[in-house]
Amino acid sequence: MKILTVSDVESRYLWEYYQPGKLQGYDLVISCGDLDARYLSFLATFAAVPVLYVHGNHDASYQYIPPEGCECIEDTVVNIKGLRIAGLGGSVRYRPGPHQYTQKQMEKRARHLTGQIRRAGGVDILVTHAPPRGLGDTEDLPHQGFDAFLGLMDQYAPRYMLHGHVHLNYGAQMERVRHYGSTTIVNAFERQVVELEPAPEPERRRWFFFRRAY
Fold it and tell me: Does the structure show a pLDDT above 50 at 205?
């Protein structure tokens, strides 16, 4: 499965400079938040594949004009072509406004999600807006990660976790890909392509290959 992941900054390459064919060949689009609703609707139209999203802390406008043709996966687990995908959007609360949570509030959301994960038999991809605490976040309050995400990875070991929120141009130490146990953590800032290929029988395991979209 070929997945286009997007977050935080609309890709000018895909949107402003779009040409027919640029969005062909994808099986799924996943947004980690803080994107113009019109951009997600554009991707749903021209990629012609499912577009899943969670909210970023700047997505208050979705309440009035949600992305058309897209599916919100907040606090739920969905199955796309056998791939189990769970969503927990939002950032650490740092000011009044929607889609912001204290550490305890996110821990409660994560606990509620575990029932669905167990019924699904596990989770392959955890989609969030904020990163996990200590893995790709920063020390300033608005960009701190959530402890609850570490707990979910410890308990269910998703094959990988997608997040946004921390822009890769914030500093030279920002990394696109990190690892935590058996989970690969990917910062989906702007855009990133993830290719999922099944292993030959009888192992029935899957590997993820990452490359920058051009």
Answer: no
